[in-house]
Design brief:
Length: about 325
């Protein structure tokens, strides 16, 4: 995963831990980006599609998240998040609540108000009618605008059709009536749509306390560690460009035979990420990559906190 300096109002975090996601997002199976849209499909086959404003419209940042689970009868849920760097848009956002709601316009036609804004989630849910209209509009060139009082946020349509087609492909919907794209020209029945996979059961295991293994020493050159970990990534230069620099490795014991190894991976304009691997403390080391975007490790718990503030292109 490449890390750039352009920040948008994110609906999908860059490390596959979705802002509106679940634990299953940690092991994402598909990630695809096309212009101003992206899709991440997790290991349950749930796909989350996110779109943003155009690059030249960063003063009115907007994000839309469309979520669809696998299965022929799965509906599409939608949410919208607005940001503001101009005084007018910022003041409008201050009025969000039950009294003032966001309205959706497609090609200047009013599709009504969203559901009430959730301060906790920082977003508003779209109605089902709005979702249906939005998905249809995104299949062709359309002017899509969200309005709040006198402020307007324009959602880009560039790349949306390619991203929705990718989601259809992952879920086995291409050519079926339940497809997001070209469902009017269906050539297959919905029986071809793939079912959802079970959500993996995650079990927290705290690193073992004092034991005989605690006194075992682990010695390996930094260059050897870097070479070992490089083999766990398809594109180490993109996923962890700082892997071979002079920053120190941090190694902690997990149990009698395994260690947790950490190293700085990347630095962007406003965020950083560390690589984390589980390895055996003796040959064969069998390194397993956990993430390249960790920001903290404490007593068996890894966390990743990335800034989501609204920022213009830098």
């Amino acid at each position: 995963m490449k890390h750039n300096n352009k920040m948008r109002l994110p609906m999908l975090a860059a490390v596959s831990m979705a802002l509106f996601g679940t634990a299953s997002m940690v092991n994402a199976k598909t990630e695809f980006t096309s212009q101003d849209w992206q899709v991440v499909c997790d290991n349950t086959r749930t796909c989350r599609i996110a779109g943003y404003q155009a690059e030249n419209n960063s003063e009115f940042p907007v994000s839309v998240l469309l979520t669809r689970r696998a299965g022929a009868n799965a509906a599409v849920d939608g949410k919208v998040k607005l940001g503001g760097t101009k005084d007018s848009s910022s003041k409008a956002l201050m009025q969000l609540g039950n009294r003032h709601r966001i309205s959706l316009f497609i090609n200047d036609r009013n599709y009504g108000e969203t559901k009430p804004y959730s301060a906790a989630a920082g977003s508003a849910e779209l109605t089902q009618a709005q979702v249906t209209a939005l998905v249809s509009a995104l299949q062709r060139s359309s002017k899509i605008t969200f309005a709040l009082r006198n402020s307007r946020w324009q959602l880009s349509d560039r790349g949306a059709s390619a991203v929705m087609l990718k989601a259809d492909d992952v879920q086995g919907r291409v050519g079926t009536p339940s497809a997001l794209m070209n469902h009017d020209n269906a050539t297959k029945s919905n029986s071809n749509v793939l079912p959802p996979k079970a959500v993996p059961v995650l079990r927290f295991v705290e690193p073992s306390g004092k034991s005989a293994a605690s006194d075992k020493k682990f010695v390996m050159r930094s260059s050897q560690l870097a070479s070992l970990m490089k083999g766990t990534m398809k594109d180490a230069d993109a996923d962890c460009p700082n892997l071979s620099d002079k920053s120190p490795w941090r190694v902690s014991r997990l149990n009698d035979s395994q260690l947790l190894a950490q190293h700085d991976c990347w630095t962007a304009a406003y965020n950083v990420g560390s690589g984390v691997w589980v390895i055996n403390d003796s040959k064969p080391y069998k390194p397993t990559l956990v993430t390249t975007s960790a920001t903290n490790y404490d007593k068996g718990k890894l966390s990743s906190v990335q800034k989501v503030a609204v920022l213009a292109t830098v």
